[in-house]
């Protein structure tokens, strides 16, 4: 077996393990996002949306649908890698994997691939839920696919970095609670940035989630608050940056070896 085949087998093994992990407990990993998003559509979209009226030239329900889908993808891809990678580190399974003749980028790709797989599955489920409440029309299919893939990769990498530094299981919940949730809710899921004063529009420009939701919404509705090329460039930049950080941490064994 040549080295490329060996590396692919290692990647496939990690990826398969990660997919089996979240599909085996699908009641805990795939069903809750569907229930949560159903409640969001019922409360914010149906009840509150009727009072708000149109936004961005479409109904409020149509406006928030892309943001809610993206919110589910972000949460799922992040939590999957954070919990799985930390469990492997806590149980000392990761030490054996690191000393194996497998490049560190293959290990990262395997875990990130598992997070992306869960994020895409949850995104598909939430999209099907959204179709019960609003007519889903896609303005640019390619852009939607690229955006959801880049977003899942970005937050899967973020989850891996969180797991590297985590000392206990409680540390896994700190970033989602105090960083991820505020960034997501202030990322323009429920409102258009054009409604904000100039100062707060400038502050929102510092939030990376704004760019992801913005370009994802454009893919569905053809409506955007921020330049689409700029949004894509920001996502690619964050993916490259977080991948570099993750590779540095894994290759140096930071937070992994006792």
UniProtKB/TrEMBL annotation:
<keyword id="KW-1003">Cell membrane</keyword>
<keyword id="KW-0813">Transport</keyword>
<feature type="transmembrane region" description="Helical">
    <location>
        <begin position="25"/>
        <end position="48"/>
    </location>
</feature>
<keyword id="KW-1133">Transmembrane helix</keyword>
<protein>
    <recommendedName>
        <fullName>Transport permease protein</fullName>
    </recommendedName>
</protein>
<feature type="transmembrane region" description="Helical">
    <location>
        <begin position="106"/>
        <end position="134"/>
    </location>
</feature>
<feature type="transmembrane region" description="Helical">
    <location>
        <begin position="230"/>
        <end position="250"/>
    </location>
</feature>
<dbReference type="GO" id="GO:0140359">
    <property type="term" value="F:ABC-type transporter activity"/>
</dbReference>
<feature type="transmembrane region" description="Helical">
    <location>
        <begin position="172"/>
        <end position="193"/>
    </location>
</feature>
<dbReference type="Pfam" id="PF01061">
    <property type="entry name" value="ABC2_membrane"/>
</dbReference>
<feature type="domain" description="ABC transmembrane type-2">
    <location>
        <begin position="24"/>
        <end position="253"/>
    </location>
</feature>
<feature type="transmembrane region" description="Helical">
    <location>
        <begin position="141"/>
        <end position="166"/>
    </location>
</feature>
<dbReference type="InterPro" id="IPR047817">
    <property type="entry name" value="ABC2_TM_bact-type"/>
</dbReference>
<feature type="transmembrane region" description="Helical">
    <location>
        <begin position="60"/>
        <end position="86"/>
    </location>
</feature>
<comment type="similarity">
    <text>Belongs to the ABC-2 integral membrane protein family.</text>
</comment>
<dbReference type="InterPro" id="IPR052522">
    <property type="entry name" value="ABC-2_transport_permease"/>
</dbReference>
<keyword id="KW-0472">Membrane</keyword>
<dbReference type="InterPro" id="IPR000412">
    <property type="entry name" value="ABC_2_transport"/>
</dbReference>
<dbReference type="GO" id="GO:0043190">
    <property type="term" value="C:ATP-binding cassette (ABC) transporter complex"/>
</dbReference>
<feature type="transmembrane region" description="Helical">
    <location>
        <begin position="205"/>
        <end position="224"/>
    </location>
</feature>
<keyword id="KW-0812">Transmembrane</keyword>
<dbReference type="InterPro" id="IPR013525">
    <property type="entry name" value="ABC2_TM"/>
</dbReference>
């Amino acid at each position: 077996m040549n080295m490329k085949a060996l590396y692919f087998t290692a990647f496939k093994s990690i990826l398969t393990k990660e997919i089996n992990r979240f599909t085996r407990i699908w009641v805990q990993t795939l069903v809750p996002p569907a229930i949560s998003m159903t409640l969001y559509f019922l409360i914010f979209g149906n009840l509150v949306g009727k009072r708000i009226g149109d936004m961005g030239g479409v109904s409020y329900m149509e406006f928030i649908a892309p943001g809610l889908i993206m919110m589910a993808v972000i949460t799922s891809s992040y939590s999957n890698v954070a919990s799985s990678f930390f469990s492997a580190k806590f149980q000392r399974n990761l030490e054996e994997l690191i000393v194996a003749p497998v490049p560190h980028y293959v290990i990262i790709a395997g875990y990130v691939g598992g997070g992306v797989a869960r994020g895409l599955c949850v995104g598909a489920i939430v999209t099907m839920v959204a179709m019960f409440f609003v007519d889903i029309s896609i303005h640019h299919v390619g852009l939607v696919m690229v955006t959801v893939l880049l977003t899942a990769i970005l937050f899967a990498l973020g989850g891996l970095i969180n797991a590297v530094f985590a000392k206990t299981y409680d540390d896994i919940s700190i970033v989602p609670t105090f960083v991820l949730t505020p960034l997501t809710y202030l990322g323009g899921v429920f409102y258009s940035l054009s409604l904000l004063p100039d100062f707060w529009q400038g502050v929102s420009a510092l939030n990376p989630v704004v760019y992801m939701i913005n370009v994802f919404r454009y893919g569905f509705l053809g409506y955007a608050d921020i330049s689409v090329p700029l949004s894509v460039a920001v996502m690619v930049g964050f993916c490259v940056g977080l991948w570099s950080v993750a590779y540095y941490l894994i290759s140096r064994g930071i937070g992994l070896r006792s």
